[in-house]
Amino acid sequence: MQSNEELLKQLRAEALLGGGAKRIEDQHKKGKLTARERLTLLLDEGSFEEFDIFARHRSNDFGLDKQRPLGDGVVTGSGRIHGRIVFVFSQDFTVFGGSLSEVHAEKIVKIMEMAMKVGAPVIGLNDSGGARIQEGVVSLGGYADIFLLNTLASGVIPQLSAILGPCAGGAVYSPAITDFVWMVEGTSYMFVTGPNVVKTVTHEDVTSEALGGADTHAEKSGVAHFASANELECLEGIRKLLTYIPQNNREKTPIINSDDDPARECIKLNSIIPDNANKPYDMKHVIEETMDRESFLEVHSSFAPNIIVGFARLNGGSVGIVANQPLAMAGVLDIDASTKGARFVRFCDAFNIPLVVFEDVPGFLPGTEQEWRGIIRHGAKLLYAFAEATVPKVTIITRKAYGGAYDVMNSKHIRGDMNYAWPTAEIAVMGAKGAVEIIFKKEISEAPDPQLREDELIEEYRQRFANPFAAAERGYIDDVIEPSDTRLRLIRSLQVLRTKKVENPWRKHGNIPL
Predict the structure, then answer these.
(1) Whole-prediction pTM value?
(2) Are 290 and 485 in contact (CB under 8 A)?
(3) CA atoms of 180 and 159, how far apart (whole Å)
(4) What is the pLDDT of residues 148-205, one digit of tens each?
(5) Dist. CA 429–CA 431, nearest whole Å
(6) Distance between CA atoms of 494 and 428, rounded to whole angstroms?
């Protein structure tokens, strides 16, 4: 008679094989790792503690009673990354195509509830064909149970999602609620309806990759924050991002010792702004020069490139960066840039990450397409996010700060804590040429030489308004600083603001213009 000890060994061995050797081989042929191989790479060595390894589905329809694999298509548990606790689930495509059943969902819900109790991040590795059709509405209920936990955990614990295979239909909405989404080029895709349905309904002929592949969601839709070349790079990216963020919304950000001198002068910045105000420069060079060496981790690098967001370190402490990018559309704010920036600002505010803003913005993008698609509403998201945020907020105006975009980009008027400008800053309602054409329209038209008079008036306007000193005179700018001093001034500002305490009026929640 087989002892319980022998049965335990047998069942564990069976569970570790997932869908069996043949399906594991098929998974590898697709260039994909198995659910357990992924967890081995993601977590610190030997730290994984599995839950519910012996769980089986309870369905008897369509012959499922004869197929009851252990684990039911998802591996769940806790582990550590850089010594810090995380909770994980990893869907196993070798078992029923990773399809979600009642028990599969229960396993995920269990670790999410535990993560909220403990105050630790949740990481989901998604590789699933969708709802298990044989279970009908029960599987749909399982999705909704997960969605509810995603929503309740939002802003309480970090939630990270990696799409490492298919993720379609209702399955897409759990990653969409989470804070950051990774995809892998060539092997992962997300869409609400697949190519066949699209062709039937809209008569569009499109591949899975073009419809919902990593590049599509990283560049066009903005659903994916990171697109990785392979699964190893993806999992390493998750490990790296976790070094910048706290375990939960009650903790401060981690401090990592830096050997980069806090008082290091950024001499290169004294000459980075071109003499011609309409000539672009790369704002990433400003970020990299002022932050701790090699610490900048860009988020959403391929989506809405006219605004830059990401994490970095200043004197070892984590900060969130929001910056206009003059190299892309002159750094103008449009719908995608506003949404991208707002989402990132709200994450940083939720998890106590100070914000550093580098501003060079000529305004909001004009045009019928932007107006008809709601630039007013979407632009208001970024305004709302900055105004609502109570973390330390420091702004550096490097060049242009025009119109309403000046207000939106963490101005003093919406509770920017420390606001600095370089001598090259131009803070005005609009550019000199546009202002002169409006204010002096009649005078220019009546002048003997209209072009000469217009040029004279533009120069006069620029001397009077297109500089940081009028704003500094009113206290809207705390100081005009040399670009080379930017790093030191940022570090000192954040040290002063470390004990900042601000509370918004009590409310159930605000009504952001979604």
Answers:
(1) 0.94
(2) no
(3) 7
(4) 999 999 999 999 999 999 998 889 999 999 999 999 999 999 999 889 989 999 999 9
(5) 7
(6) 27
Percent of the chain surpassing pLDDT 70: 97
Considering 18, 79, 169, 379, which one is annotated as catalytic? 169
Catalytic annotation, pick one of 387, 405, 471, 472: 405
Euclidean distance between CA atoms 42 and 244, whole angstroms: 16
pLDDT tens track for 464-479: 777 899 999 999 999 9
- Cβ 303 vs Cβ 227: under 8 Å: no
Residue 284 tokens read as 């990433």
* Six token digits for residue 241: 């991002």
Of the residues 119, 141, 155, 170, only one is catalytic, namely 170
170 labelled catalytic: yes
Asked if residue 348 lies in contact with residue 339, where contact means CB atoms within 8 angstroms, the answer is: no
Q: Which amino acid is at 1?
A: M
Q: What are the E-state strand segments in 214-270?
A: 226-228
CA–CA gap between residue 230 and residue 183 (Å, rounded): 9
Residue pair 76/108 in contact (Cβ under 8 Å)? The answer is yes
What is the β-pairing status of strands 297-299 and 226-228?
unpaired
Q: Which two tokens stand for residue 214?
A: 């990593």
- The catalytically annotated residue of 186, 222, 404, 434 is 404
Query: In whole angstroms, what is the distance from residue 207 CA to residue 194 CA?
Result: 9
Q: Is 169 a catalytic residue?
A: yes
The continuous run of DSSP H or E covering 197 comes out as helix 195-202
The CA distance from 337 to 306, in Å, is: 7
State how far the alpha carbon of 112 is from the alpha carbons of 354, 420, 494, in Å: 27, 42, 33
Tokens 């909405």 -> residue:
173
Residue 411: burial class (beta carbons within 10 Å; 0-12, 13-18, 19+): buried
Pseudo-torsion of CA 255, 257, 260, 266, nearest 10°? Answer: 10
Round to whole Å and give the CA distance between 273 and 280.
8
Give yes or no: 405 in active site: yes
Q: Quick check: helix, strand or coil at residue 98?
A: helix
* 71 close to 18: Cβ distance less than 8 angstroms: yes
CA distance 388 to 371: 25
Cα→Cα distances 88→79, 213, 329, 434, 471, Å: 8, 24, 40, 55, 50
Helix or strand (DSSP H, E) at 183: strand 180-184
Band of pLDDT at residue 43, cut at 50, 70 and 90: very high
